[in-house]
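About this split. The held-out portion is used to measure sequence recovery: a designer receives only the structure tokens and must propose an amino acid at every position. Recovery is the fraction of positions where the proposal matches the reference. Here is one held-out target exactly as it appears in the evaluation file.
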């Protein structure tokens, strides 16, 4: 069950809380409060969000996508659980770096959760669809999977799925290390209330890596 209360005072015309509706439009922002059923059957909880209702329109029915977002808010979606590169690792200019992450439910998925508002129950499943690595040297690498763990037998080969080769050292960077940021895109597929859809969430993790030069001894 959802109730609607007109926001007073109304947000100014340039406010993000007007949900993209200008000051001259005929309508108002309402606070929608929905009573949700807890997954474990222990009772109910309330969720609030904002909706725009044009003059003369009836309050909208429960939006299944909004219920899907509530389901996702109950999940624990974390940034990538980075295995490589490691902060204590030793990396060298010109030598291929292999990047990969652990595949845990909270850092890679999948996770599935349901939420109920009124008569609408939605089930959402979230899983990581890609990871974008900002390497700290101005380069960006997008990987469509968790990456491939390196094995000593690979020698100087490049990663077949997710890797990078630094062309310069990290000398001169803050603490003489590059700040590497891995941003995961979680794709959420949901269905319920007679509808189905998909949307994305992002999370990130960081690691500091030192890149040196190979020293030749003569």
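Reference sequence for scoring:
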């Amino acid at each position: 069950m959802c109730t609607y209360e007109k926001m007073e005072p109304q947000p100014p015309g340039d406010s993000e809380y007007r949900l993209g509706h200008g000051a001259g439009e005929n309508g108002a922002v309402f606070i929608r409060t929905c009573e949700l059923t807890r997954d474990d059957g222990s009772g109910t909880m309330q969720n609030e969000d904002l909706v725009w209702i044009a003059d003369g329109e009836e309050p909208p029915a429960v939006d299944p996508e909004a219920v899907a977002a509530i389901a996702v808010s109950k999940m624990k979606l974390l940034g990538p659980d980075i295995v490589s590169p490691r902060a204590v690792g030793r990396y060298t200019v010109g030598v291929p770096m292999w990047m990969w992450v652990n595949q845990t439910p909270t850092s890679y998925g999948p996770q599935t959760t349901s939420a109920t508002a009124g008569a609408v129950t939605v089930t959402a499943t979230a899983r990581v669809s890609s990871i974008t690595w900002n390497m700290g040297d101005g380069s960006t690498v997008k990987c469509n999977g968790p990456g491939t763990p390196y094995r000593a037998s690979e020698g100087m080969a490049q990663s077949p799925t997710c890797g990078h080769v630094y062309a310069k050292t990290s000398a001169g960077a803050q603490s003489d290390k590059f700040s590497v940021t891995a941003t995961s895109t979680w794709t959420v597929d949901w269905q319920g209330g007679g509808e189905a859809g998909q949307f994305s969430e992002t999370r990130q993790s960081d690691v500091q890596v030192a890149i040196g030069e190979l020293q030749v001894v003569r």
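Annotator remark: The chain has a mean pLDDT of 90.
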